[in-house]
Amino acid sequence: MSARKHTALPKARTLIEALPWLTRHHGKTVVIKFGGNAMVDEELKRAFAQDVVFLRHAGLRPVVVHGGGPQISAQLDLLGLESEFKGGLRVTTPEAMNVVRMVLAGQVQRELVGLLNEHGPLAVGMTGEDAHLMTATKHFADIDGERVDIGRVGEITAIDPGAVQAMLDDGRIPVISSIARSSDAEDAASGASGVFNVNADTAAAALAAALGAETLMVLTDVEGLYEDWPNSDEVISRLTATELEKLLPDLASGMVPKMRGCLHAVRNGVHTARVIDGRVQHSILLEIFTDEGIGTMVVPDANTIEGAA
Ligand SMILES: Nc1ncnc2c1ncn2[C@@H]1O[C@H](COP(=O)(O)OP(=O)(O)O)[C@@H](O)[C@H]1O
Ligand SMILES: CC(=O)N[C@@H](CCC(=O)OP(=O)(O)O)C(=O)O
């Protein structure tokens, strides 16, 4: 055997280590939520695109749902408009809704589509408005038991995953912005304000459930769900749906829609929902190559699903 073959052996071993995971996930749909806070630099975004393309070429069916909260806030700021969050959701005036749509669909989604397509004709961008993908009604925030009007924030009432399935069947990578059409026909006819701003974690979770995805991966700007945030950095590595449900009332800010989304996903057929650190380069591949995973994994209560981890 030549020395050259020996030096490549660790690489071969690394690939083979991933074989059980890849075998289990072959042909499976994985919904990956890329949070706006994790999109901190160009290199990270490029590494994210590489990971997603890797999954696609390894035989999985990745779907990307992206966020863009900080990017929306920056644009609102430039326009002299205020950003206010209630219960982890942006208070969205009709004016702000136009900015949300412009930033998510016109900026963040375009950038991710471009990065993915550096690897071939793979990514297709769409919003929840396209082909009736996501339909919503007005969502009211629940602040200390009180129903609060937060403007054009939507609550998803229906998902029609047909267009996404068709794209996946065609070998494409759908890249989805979390904007929904209104279920009210008159509202829908009223222009840009006929759409709703949906939190991207909520949208990703609803889509994962509707697609019957194997896994929901949520990439964010923390290592996972901290047990006692902000006092300690102890990450909860694994918890069941019921355990998570008990924790929900104590969660704060951005973690609220994220963990509610994970709970919704695993209660509706998704085998695992994971929160992982998107600030770490190639976090998606690390999650695959590390036996126990790198962040927080939520599993259904009676975890009878073979090979769910
Ligand atoms: N228990 C917790 N564990 C981890 N992060 C938490 C927790 N509670 C609140 N957070 C906050 O949630 C943030 C992640 O949500 P968010 O800012 O909406 O990110 P993204 O843009 O990725 O959706 C963290 O940066 C942290 O400030
Ligand atoms: C209703 C609501 O809050 N919508 C979010 C949509 C974007 C998002 O969720 O982005 P991240 O994943 O980066 O937080 C917003 O306007 O910021």
From TrEMBL:
EC numbers for this chain: 2.7.2.8
Keywords, sorted A to Z: Amino-acid biosynthesis, Arginine biosynthesis, ATP-binding, Cytoplasm, Kinase, Nucleotide-binding, Transferase
GO molecular function, a single term: acetylglutamate kinase activity
Residues at which substrate binds: 68-69, 90, 197
Listed GO biological process terms: L-arginine biosynthetic process via ornithine
Top-level taxon in the UniProt lineage: Bacteria
Pathway: Amino-acid biosynthesis; L-arginine biosynthesis; N(2)-acetyl-L-ornithine from L-glutamate: step 2/4
Site (Transition state stabilizer): 33, 258
Reaction catalysis annotation: N-acetyl-L-glutamate + ATP = N-acetyl-L-glutamyl 5-phosphate + ADP
HAMAP family (alphabetical): ArgB (MF_00082)
Family per record: Belongs to the acetylglutamate kinase family. ArgB subfamily.
Record's function text: Catalyzes the ATP-dependent phosphorylation of N-acetyl-L-glutamate.
Name used for this protein in its record: Acetylglutamate kinase
Gene that encodes it: argB
